[in-house]
Specification:
Blueprint lengths: L1 H5 L3 E4 L4 E3 L2 E3 L4 E3 L3 E9 L4 H14 L5 H17 L3 E8 L2 E8 L2 H18 L1
Antiparallel strand pairs: 1-2, 2-3, 3-4, 5-6, 6-7
Helix pairs in contact: 2-3
């Protein structure tokens, strides 16, 4: 068994993911490459509605002269929250059991590297 692992071609490896010609290993799951039919990046769009609602709520405080500064603080918090919301990207694989999201990150380039490695492994498999 050890000799077989040493002969495997590794397409990508980091501390969380390993892609070889026969396996795709994540922190929580191992997929057999022979069962993966396709792979692509999927974008998870985060809702920004609550942050916008907070800013609108802050606008009502601006109408009052006594608590005007509270409105400014609420609007500032809403703007900060809105700018801190990042969409997430996932490696979505299609197997004979259906589609699954395996790795999720806000870093699109990281996910793209894994998808490219998986595509190379699928092509190598033939």
């Amino acid at each position: 068994m050890e000799a077989q692992i040493q002969n495997e071609v590794t397409f990508y490896k980091d501390s969380f993911v390993r892609v070889t010609q026969s396996r795709y290993v994540t922190q929580s799951k191992t997929y057999a490459m022979r069962n993966i039919s396709s792979v692509h990046i999927f974008e998870i769009i985060k809702s920004r509605a609550k942050a916008v609602f907070l800013m609108i709520f802050g606008l009502f405080f601006l109408l009052s002269k006594d608590i005007f500064w509270v409105g400014l603080i609420i609007i500032a918090l809403g703007i900060w929250w809105l700018t801190s919301i990042k969409n997430e990207y996932t490696v979505r694989i299609s197997t004979n059991a259906g589609e699954a999201d395996s790795i999720v990150s806000t870093n699109r380039d990281y996910i793209q590297k894994i998808v490219n490695a998986l595509n190379d492994a699928i092509i190598h498999r033939g």
